[in-house]
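Throughout our pipeline, every protein is held as a single compact record rather than as scattered files. Such a record has a labelled line for the sequence and another for the backbone structure tokens. This encoding replaces a full spatial description with a residue-level series of whole-number codes. For reference, a complete record is included directly beneath this paragraph.
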Amino acid sequence: MKILLKISLVLIALTFMAMKGDKPAYMLFDADGKNASFKKLVKDAANADIIFFGEQHNNPITHWLQLELTEELYDQKKNKLVLGAEMFESDNQLVLDEYLIGQCSSKNFEKEAKLWKNYKTDYKPLVDFAKENDLSFIATNIPRRYASLVYKQGFEGLDSLSTEAKELIAPLPVKYDANLPGYKAMLEGMEGMGAHANPNLPKAQAIKDATMAHFILENWEKGKTFIHYNGSYHSDNFEGIVWYLKQENPNLKIFTITTIEQDTITELKDENKNVADYILCVPSNMTKTYPM
């Protein structure tokens, strides 16, 4: 018996040493910084109405896990799953829909839609997954020309838009809380760089958040799960899009994932705790899909 115990202890020690010598590509943590499994993340996400997968746009681990999570959720939800993303603007919904149902070729879609430079590597797999499984994929973001208008003129600039144009953005007037930490940090960041702080900068961010929240709600219904892919800053600390959703429907079950980078990923830094329900921690030197 003692020999078996000694053998077991040796095996445990060898396993621990082997794990210490590994180079994991990522670690998952819960909000409190405790180690979490992908299986547990999937289980918790499946209970949500709206899921936000916050990403670092050029991080390949994020994009890989976005697809993995989507596939796992589809296995459970089937046609009750809806996809949507910041990376597609609302005025591209028509051509996106035409591509999804086969009326538009991949070549024409990629030529006509305003796609990000990492579309083929990072977002095409998600769009094609929706296409192959007859799922909706919602272009949630505001057309960039209207966000630019807010940056230049404030929310008042949107009043001059046509009725047709206003269909592509959140309903006016847009609620706005300048004291939300994320928006305040934008202005403080500009001042810290010696730049003249434009008070419209966080407003331009807010109109994006409000518009994404609007189109998420417009395409979600009870019993469905909407998974949304966005830059982590749009949902971190349960602000941004999450704040706007809660203004319209405080009873929504919202689940957030964020991506952060650390030099060492075995333990989550205190400043990265409680940023989201789950934190995907990736090595800082991870290969990037494109230079920022």
Summary: Confidence is low (pLDDT under 50) at residues 1-19. The longest strand covers residues 81-89. The CA atoms of residues 16 and 22 lie 10 Å apart. DSSP finds eleven helices and seven strands in the chain.
